Every structure is written in structure tokens, then in C-alpha cells.
Amino acid sequence: MVDNWTGVILAGGIGSRLRPLTQYIPKPLVQVANKPMLDYAIDHLKYAGIKEIIVVVKHLGEKIRDHMEEEWFSNEERLGDLHIEVPHVNSLDTADALRKVDDLIETDYVLVSMGDIVTNLPLKDFLQYHVKKAGIASISMKEIEEPKQYGVVILDPDGKIQVFLEKPTSQELYLSSFIQQSEQVSAGNLINTGIYAFKSDILDLLRNDNSLMDFGKNVFPYLLENRFSIYGFVEKYYWMDVGQAKPYLWANWDLLRGYGWPVTPRGTDHGGLWYDEKPGVNKGLKIDPPCALGKVQFGKNVHVKQLTTLDDNVTIGDGSKVERSTIWKNVTIGKDCDIKESIVCNDVELGDRVTLVNCVIGPQSKIASGRTLQYEKVITKSD
Fold it and tell me: Alpha helices of 134-275 — where are they, by DSSP H?
């Protein structure tokens, strides 16, 4: 059945809300637990058995192509029998991106996924659900406490969508609460989590109507207005939209805690420590699991506390402590530093005795010795 599917990963977003993390890299290449979000998206399709994959790029697309070449196309064992294409298209929105790669799709079914979310949605079940329901589209959904910032969906008892509100207003949420009290619809704060299954008929509709630019704003309302059948797939699963720095940090913690299983950090689990190569040990080194470790050089009496991610080429000076933080590649941390609940991007230098609490330090920044920063975002290259 999965041989009749093409997976399309939309990886062209700018990620402006996530700056400075996306200052020099596209959002799909932002790493969560030492692994780019794009790789999680590809693995998600791969584990479901989808072999035809299109990664649609736009903003900084050459960096995604370079990543695919280095990490996938040149690694035959990892690539396996996947057939992946990486077209660069000048799309205006999500549905427009699908429209502009329709010539690459030859299967009867299409799965559209985003390259900037982390989820363990049971994808095989979702594909089977879509085929069984036989509607033109199915939308992945889950229930959350605060739905306002996402698309809210109301279903009938068979799972058929009756109402679709893209990022609803407070008034719309209030009215939808009355609709949900009816026995004819499913209650709860159901949101659209951004993975869509379609019959290939959707491609004809997109070709014939260039006004259908965005799935949430245009395509799904159009389908409902024209009495096409759309179904909602509702399950309990892990899902995180890492659109801002704090949820990004949470996503790192969640994967370290195992909330996203079988989506896991890079490397192999060694009693809660995830790494490819066993880290070197220095006098007084203490590492509290769970943590994810790349190739790290530790000084003496370093304490790496739980829920910390350290990427490759990180150097930590004597007596420093890192807790519940995410440290990217090529970072130097001086002596006697204290880093808590912070994000430190690529190519950063921290002097001695630097304290960071709930900070985001942008790439190529330098923080002088003795500085204390709390709840700050550093975007410039020096302090």
C-alpha cells in the first residue's frame, strides 16, 4: 500500500520567529537533540515505508541540498532504497509548493509533511485511515488545552470534518464551543498538526485554481464549501511546533526524556546518555542523564546536568556547569561558567566566569569574561 504514496516535505520556511537560531541556516536544519528537524521528517516517512520523497526547498535551499548530499546521498546505508528529490521552487505558500512539484508525483496518494516539526504521529495508521475513509483529504489532529494559535477542527461521529478554523479568533472559539456540545460532532480542542494525506485528485484542483495558496487558509475551506469529504485523524502522540526559542528548548528536553519515542536523539542510548562515540573523561567530570553528547572536550571538574545537549566540537573549561541547555557546534565555554536553560548557537565563544540564565546566544557571538546575562537574546556578533 505504501508503494502508492509520495511524501512531500515542505522545507522552504524562513523561520523568522526562531531567530537568531535561523540567522545563517534554514529552519529545517535547526538541530533538536543533535539531529536536524529535516532528518526527523525524512526518517518519519522512511519508517512508515514511503520511499518516494520530495523535499521542497526555497529559503537557503542550497544549504539543505548540501546537507542532503553530505548526510543522505553520499551514505548508501542510510539512504537505502529511498528515492529523494530536492527541487528548489519559488512557492508563495504551502499549497503552492505542492502545485509546483506536481510533475514529480506519479502515485495515487500524496502525504504532505512539514520540515520543521517534531512528532511521533503513527504515520502508518494515518495512511491506512486515509485510504479506508476514501475522502480527498485527511488531516492529522490532536487535542490540546489552548487551541487559539493553531487551526481548530470540528468532526462528526465518523471523523468527517464539519468546521475548519485556521488560527481562530476568540469569538470563533466561543462559537465553536457551542457547536461541540451537539451530539452530532466530536467535542474537544482538536487542532490541525500539519500533516496531510491526499488523493492525487488534489493536484488537479490545485492546477485549475491558482488562488488556492495555503492549505489551512484556502484549500481546506474550499474543499468543505464544495462538499468534498475531509477526515480528521485523531490520536494521542507527541508533537511540538518549534516556532520559537522556548518550545525549541522544550523539544530538546522532551526527546531526551523519551516523550517522542521512537523519535530519539542522535546516537545510541547508553543509560540515558546519547552519543555516537564515548566522550573523553577528565578529572572530576560528572554527567547526569538524560543528555545528548557529540564530540566534546571536557576540562576538569565539569558538571553536565540533566536535559543538556552538547553538539560536536564543543570545549568546556574547568569548573563549568551546563544545565538544561542546548549547545550547538564549535562552541568554546571558558572556565567556571554557569549556563542554565539557554541556547548557544554555532561558533560562539564564552569567556571565563560567564553566567547565562534563560538566554539565546546567536551564532558567532562572543561574550566577555565575567558577564552575567539573564533572559536575554544576543543576535550581534559581540556583546
Answer: 170-180, 201-208, 220-225, 245-257
**Pairing mode, strands 35-36 and 268-270:** unpaired
CB 111 within 8 A of CB 7: yes
In the structure grid, which three cell numbers stand for residue 211, read together? Answer: 488562488
Neighbours of 310 (CB within 10 A): 28
Question: What are the φ and ψ backbone dihedral angles of 151, each rounded to 5 degrees?
Answer: -75, 125
Q: How confident is the model at residue 180 (pLDDT cuts 50, 70, 90)?
A: very low
Domain contains 328: yes
SS3 230: strand
Q: Provide the pLDDT for residue 178.
A: 42
Q: Could you give the C-alpha distances from 213 to 21, 93, 113, 217, in angstroms and in order?
A: 27, 5, 16, 8
* pTM score of the predicted model: 0.87
Whether the CB-CB separation of 362 and 346 falls below 8 Å is answered with no
Q: Is 226 found in the same domain as 147?
A: yes
pLDDT, one tens digit per residue, over 300-358 is 999 999 999 999 999 999 999 999 999 999 999 999 999 999 999 999 999 999 999 99
Question: What's the angle, vertex CA 360, arms to CA 20 and CA 145, rounded to 5?
Answer: 95
Structural domain containing residue 297: 268-378
CB 207 within 8 A of CB 102: yes
What is the C-alpha separation between 17 and 40, in angstroms, rounded? 21
Query: pLDDT: is 3 or 205 the higher one?
Result: 205
Q: Are residues 104 and 235 in the same domain?
A: yes
Residue 187: CB atoms within 10 A of its CB come to: 14
End-to-end CA distance of the chain: 56
> Grid coordinates representing 16?
523568522
Enumerate residues 6+ apart whose C-beta is below 8 A from 74: none
- Angle among Cα 318, 253, 16 to the nearest 5 degrees reads 100
- 3-state SS, 76-141, equals HHHHCCCEEECCECCCCCHHHHHHCCHHHCCCCEEEEEECCEEECCCHHHHHHHHHHHCCCEEEEE
Least confident segment among 90-99, 148-157, 180-189, 299-308? 180-189
Q: Is residue 324 part of a domain?
A: yes
* 107 plus 216 within the same structural domain: yes
